[in-house]
Amino acid sequence: ATGAANHPLPCSVGRPKGTNQRRRPASLSVRASSDANTVTLLDYGAGNVRSVRNAIRHLGFNIRDVRSPEDILAADRLVFPGVGAFGSAMDVLNRTGMADALREYIRRDRPFLGICLGLQLLFDSSEENGPVSGLGVIPGVVRRFDSSEGLIVPHIGWNALQITKDTQLLQGADGHHVYFVHSYHALPSDANRDWISSTCNYGESFISSISMGNIEAVQFHPEKSGATGLSIFEKFLSPNSSGAKVVIKSDFIVCTSFYLFLFNIKFTLMFAMQAPAHRKASKLAKRVIACLDVRSNDNGDLVVTKGDQYDVRDHSSSKEVRNLGKPVELASQYYIDGADEVSFLNITGFRAFPLGDLPMLEVCLSFITIKYFHYLPLSGEVTGLYNW
């Protein structure tokens, strides 16, 4: 992986003949680096990509951040976890010269993984606050889900992949559920069908991943998709590996609410029937959600607790806050045991300005996400409004 591919991938693959392409600048010419343990990450500052960073580091790789267009062209492997709005992202990419660098990197068929908006930006354009022109790599227009007939938008939750092309990246993922959160999507067409490696159904069939040569992109969030997502990451980062072991959920449905004897923590279990690989899921899966009440004790330590009507203090002379465990350890254990989500409820209701509750935010955003690769809701009472 130290030079341009023997068969460069043109950005016009799958396009009708006669379609004009943007002319790439001749000045963009940088030799790729050769650090096998380093992954280049394109984080253009539009949002939080902490979970992507943690997933990459969890698999034993170092991260090199893109600072200039030359960093893109020098990358051995490039991960682009696009976040935010389509138009804003393209504004940044065009203004910094990174859009042309991305087109050139893809034209050379260098290893590329786009995530969520990182997939959408590869298309011709988007209707989001537009039309807005994209990178123009894949034919098609990114459109909003149609909510006129009751479809809930955005599409949030676990949905199943329907594999349409054999690829190493998605090997073993057919029928498995991955985590989506998006309002816009690209539709399959005759012009882009050669790119499509999987589809998903949410009101209609949409493109959930593409693959062409060394170019890969997914609409879902592998960094929030548990063992299946980590396996996908590992297959991109270490193409010669077999990938992480995928945990398959049991084939039964349970919906109940009870107190867990060991921790006396109330939470709701919702197990979804795992669809066999030959069946095609057409709706979101139900999921296991562990709900943990958390607050700071008198020493300032964040603990998981439980009480009656938020009375969480021992009925003893000490009157200490009941400590049922540390949030990091419990969240990690629930993840290992198969929970799809862990929801933290700050029962003190963010008594001050939420960003001032540093123990809560530091634990949830810094420590838990290092070991936890699912969606992580964080809630508490709204106590006031603040101007930004």
UniProtKB/TrEMBL annotation:
The keyword Amino-acid biosynthesis applies. Pathway: Amino-acid biosynthesis; L-histidine biosynthesis; L-histidine from 5-phospho-alpha-D-ribose 1-diphosphate: step 5/9. The keyword Lipid biosynthesis does not apply. It catalyses: 5-[(5-phospho-1-deoxy-D-ribulos-1-ylimino)methylamino]-1-(5-phospho-beta-D-ribosyl)imidazole-4-carboxamide + L-glutamine = D-erythro-1-(imidazol-4-yl)glycerol 3-phosphate + 5-amino-1-(5-phospho-beta-D-ribosyl)imidazole-4-carboxamide + L-glutamate + H(+); L-glutamine + H2O = L-glutamate + NH4(+). Pfam families: GATase. One of its GO terms (molecular function) is glutaminase activity. Residues 41-236 form the Glutamine amidotransferase domain. Keywords: Amino-acid biosynthesis, Glutamine amidotransferase, Histidine biosynthesis, Hydrolase, Lyase. Coiled coil: none annotated. SUPFAM superfamilies: Class I glutamine amidotransferase-like (SSF52317), Ribulose-phoshate binding barrel (SSF51366). Signal peptide: none annotated. GO terms for biological process: L-histidine biosynthetic process. InterPro entries: Aldolase_TIM (IPR013785), Class_I_gatase-like (IPR029062), GATASE (IPR017926), Imidazole-glycPsynth_HisH (IPR010139), RibuloseP-bd_barrel (IPR011060). Residues 1-30 are annotated as: Disordered. NCBIfam families: IMP_synth_hisH. Heterodimer of HisH and HisF. This is Glutamine amidotransferase domain-containing protein. It comes from Aegilops tauschii subsp. strangulata. The lineage of its organism: Eukaryota, Viridiplantae, Streptophyta, Embryophyta, Tracheophyta.
